[in-house]
Amino acid sequence: MGIMRSLYIAIMILLAISIVACVQTEKPTPTPTPAPTPTPQKIKVKIGVLVPKTGKFQTKGVVMENAAKLAKKHIEEKGKVEIELEFADCGDSAEKTKAAFLDLANRGVVAIVGAYSSPQAIAAADAALETKTPYIVSVASTGLIEKKVAEGNSYVFRNAYNTTYWGKLASEFLSLSGAEAYYFQGFQPLSTFNKGMLNVIQQNTDLKLIDEVYYNPSVDPKDVQNKARDAAQKIGDKDVLILGDPGSLSVAFLKAYRGNGGKGIVYSVGGVLALPQTLKGLNSTADYTAFQAAALEKIASTEYTKKYFDGYRKEYEEEANNYAGVLTYDAILILGQALEKLENVKSGDEKLKTSLIEELEKGEFKGACGIYRFNAKHQAEWGSEKLEGKLAEWVNGEALVLYPAKFAESEVLWP
Amino acid sequence: MALNFFSILSSTIFLSIFAIAISLNFRISKFLNLSHGSIFALGAYVAYYTIKSGVIPGVILSAIFAFFTGVVLYFIIKKIGNGIFEATIISLGFAIGLEEILRIVHGKGYYLIVESSLTLAGIDFWELVQGLMLLIILAILFLVYNSKFGIKLKFVEDDDFLARIYGVNYEKLSLLCIALTSSITGLLGFFSSTSQALYPGIGWMPLISGILIAAITALFRSVGLIHYAKIVLIAFIYSLFISIVMC
Amino acid sequence: MKGKKEREELSKVDIIGNAIKNYKELYRKKRKLRLAEFLILVVIFTISPFVSGFYFLWLMTLGIIYSIYTLAWNCMETMIGRTSLGHAIPFGLAGYLSAILYLYIKNPLFIPVTWMIAGVLSAVVFYILSLSRDRVAFVFISFLIGTVIWILSPLFTITLNGEVYGGEEGFSLPSNPVLATYTFSVVLLLATFLFFGFLRTSATGLKFATVRDDEKAAKLVGVKVNKVKAYCSLISCIITALAGGLYALHFSHVNPEIFSIHVALFPFIATIFFKNDSEIGVVAGSFILVFASNYLNSIFPQLHLLLYSALLILSPGIMRWRDRRAKLMSVG
User: Fold this and answer.
1) ipTM
2) A118 and A94 within one domain
3) Domains along chain B?
């Protein structure tokens, strides 16, 4: 009886695994190449998108998915490439991300974009090498991505900023503002990112650092508000508080900071406090909050900038996201443009991925943020003339552009 | 190194309320209710939808929603669970489910913000409300534990099996306890909603801190009101310690 | 003619003798069963690399690693009656220590040493916790310690040559072919499977079981309860640490999520459907959870966690149904 039960269980396992294996190992049949016609051949490809549909980054996942769909629509308007987007939930862990990446690669995608946090991007980069699938990191900033490229992983690219550029933008703001000193408020769970950024700021500015403080609500749920209260007592009229938390707690910090009479300007690294929806919701609390963004509606870096912001608003009836969303949009555009440039390569061709990588390495691509080129470490060349981060300041319900200089609407305004 | 007394007081009040809810639940209903974090988030979401129409209706609605969530949890545990460990696991499943429902219903591309900037004598109104809430809870506990009903409570805390034998309606008490402690955390979520951007997982960190405070206080094996007074003291020491360490 | 008393004595001896014979026979059968199960697993794991693609092999490896983890966790639950909600500690600590060592000494050969260290350190903690007879307190304290470590792990950084490592980004490990990790994991799983299968049917296993059933009674019959707890903690934590180390190698990276509550709860949920004293059931449960979780995640991402929550809520009911069924089958 016992042996029968064990055999039954073992056969069940085998059966279950076989069913899943059959489903999972099912490879799509290559799209048949159309017969030669006078009109140019349309290349049909699948592009995978890793979005956090569950977990703590789910809010960002919504904008990333929407932006990806919008990008598909805009690429297909040109008529040269037909894209089928395959979405997979990368959750908020590296394990889920890697499984999602492998699942997408198994579905026959030609390239993958997305993932949110640095650990997720690292896991995806490794999976890119293992499956030989080109991958574009569209949000995470970790320096490990460039390290992996330097160590021989030629499959991963990044169109988002790296940590160094985050620091350079903050330094640029300090320089523009004419501040007397600055205060660095970091977020402990992102300390690696924050410390990297602060190192760059310290290298690029001579201003006095009043203090370097980190909040961590895991040890005390009121820590954010408490740190805001402390900061309000230390910062003067002509000082800048650099807020290194791109997440939702930055709102709690800003509210508590201004509520306790906090002076000076708050410079946010972006994320939640760079969204018009959030800033409007905060009313006067948001005044004199400066932020960086990869794209701003007022700065028409390329024809895609207006298309993105208008298209998103029309399609989804809310304001477009100006970092995670727009960079995911651009990542799909980059792939679409790279695919358009490929000659004599058909859908389902084994050489397609290799050709795509070669094109990404040497080509120039238009996105809503600007014109992308990738350097030797497959990092988009942010800070070049054609691709720059944007700085703005929220005053009286409006975002005033401060940088790049050619688009500046105003100088930095002090309260 | 300057310590901000108000910050320490604010943390003490918040942690005390959460820890009292967890502790009451544990000592009377005899399980660690891990759904308090999600109920806290539920209270905050109720605030988002109701606060502009009126604070008092919003508060009442938040308390009612949280109360009935607690009632649902009680009946699930009664039906399926048996013992402290099973009830705790059920509450964890309940917490994850509640959080996911909030996530599915409110899945937007931006965080929800409850805007209500009221101050009284330069202090944030909602911080004062939390302080008042703690005083009310302690006052109620004082009155209850000094009454005849309080003797039953102490009996149940000590040995619920024996209390049942001596005629204490344990089931009713347990139901009331779960529902009322859920109301407490739901209300706390409502009052805390203006200080942060909302997302379904906002309750997990307060839950962990609350459990830590309650667990440390439990080591002293006090009974009745003294236990809850010690919770406030431990919360104060904890906040002070964190302030010193984080400075 | 033998007296009545003598006849009674003899019949008692017969009863005891028969009982011993029956137990020996039962355990012999159980060992044969374990061997049969072991051979089935060998066949499945030998065939798998040849019939599957990369993704499937990667998932199989993950399933195997989690099976080892769950088997080790199960050891504490079924042998000394301690349910741990903190087994993510040895699991994660092994990954972290090996990554940190690799950061300084770029030689992967020393990595297994760190796994053993992680196992021993965790075993000390669990042993101390298990000394108290309050089993419920063990659950909650292990849960609290695990959660605190999860919360504090992102704060841990190392600065080397001006670069900051760790924190929320975690640490990297050497990448290795999935087939290599698969092979090591299979070997470890089979060894663990055999070990626990034979331990359970040995005299030592019986001693462990007496501690689980009643510590006071076990002490009275001469079982060194604290020694048993120490052995069990050591075995469980070392094997968990080995699984954690393989997990870190499987991803070539380790970050604070390795200490998360989901990792801590995995063995508990994996053992819901099958009886705990069946190693094959534990392996099956782990595989079902890994595959179902990944499969559901790709088709119903929003609902996957709702299903998880439903499983947790229904788990006591499922376990009681499972135990009733097992009893009926053994009577039948």
Assistant:
1) 0.86
2) yes
3) 5-241 (1.10.3470.10)
Beta-bridge partners for A395? A398
| Whether pLDDT at A28 is above 60 | no
Helical ranges in B166-218 per DSSP H: 170-192, 204-218
Q: Cα separation of B231 and B20, whole Å?
A: 7
Give CA–CA dist C244/C66, Å, rounded.
9
Mean pLDDT by 10 residues, chain C (332 residues): 71 76 80 88 91 88 96 91 93 95 88 95 95 83 89 88 85 88 96 91 85 88 91 96 96 91 89 77 91 79 80 88 78 56
- pLDDT of C1: 53
Within 8 A by CB and 6+ apart from A65, the residues are A49, A51, A53, A87
* Cα torsion A138, A142, A148, A150: sign: positive
Do residues A261 and A179 share a domain? yes
> Kind of pairing, strands A111-114 and A135-137?
parallel
CB-nearest partner of B4 from A218, A230, A321:
A230
Any B CB within 8 A of C203 CB: no
A6 found inside a domain? no
Question: What is the least distance, in Å, from the CA of B7 to any CA of chain A?
Answer: 5
Find the helix packing angle between C111-130 and C88-104, rounded to 10°. Answer: 150
Taking each helix axis as running N to C, give the angle between helix C301-331 and helix B55-80, from 0 to 180 degrees, rounded to the nearest 10: 20
Q: Cβ of C164 under 8 Å from any chain A Cβ?
A: yes
Domain holding A249: CATH number? 3.40.50.2300
pLDDT one-digit tens code per residue, B156-176: 888 888 888 888 899 999 999
* Of B195, B239, B246, Cβ closest to residue A255: B195
Tell me how crowded residue C217 is: count the other CB atoms within 10 A of its CB: 11
